[in-house]
Amino acid sequence: MAKYLIDHKHRKIHRSAYVGDKCDLPQIPLNKRCGEKKAEKIEQLTDKGYLPCPHCFKGPTVN
Q1: What is the DSSP letter of 59?
Q2: 4-57 confidence digits (pLDDT tens)
Q3: How many CB atoms lie within 10 A of CB 37?
Q4: Of all helices (H) and strands (E), which one includes residue 52?
Q5: Whole-number Å distance between alpha carbons of 20 and 27
Q6: How many of the other CB atoms lie within 10 Å of CB of 16?
């Protein structure tokens, strides 16, 4: 299972274990997102301007 979900449409990185309704992933077509396990790949994406999702990247949120 992927640790991260990459939203290529909005250039956001999600933590798969904490994705919730606020992340709006169901609105993103499957061909515009993918899974990733390696932290090195996440670092490469942030260097390319991808941002961590404010709702799920750092862990669970209340609400």
Answers
A1: S
A2: 999 998 999 999 888 888 888 877 787 888 899 998 999 999 999 999 999 999
A3: 11
A4: strand 51-52
A5: 12
A6: 15
Q: Is the dihedral of CA 63, 32, 37, 26 positive or negative?
A: positive
- Report residue 28 as tokens: 């993103």
DSSP 5-42: EEETTTTEEEEGGG--GGG-GGGS-GGGEEEE--HHHH
Token pair belonging to 32: 């515009």
Residues 56-61: contacts with CB under 8 Å, at least 24 apart: 56/14, 56/15, 56/18, 56/19, 56/20, 56/22, 56/23, 57/13, 57/14, 57/15, 57/18, 58/15, 59/15, 59/18, 60/18, 61/18, 61/20, 61/22
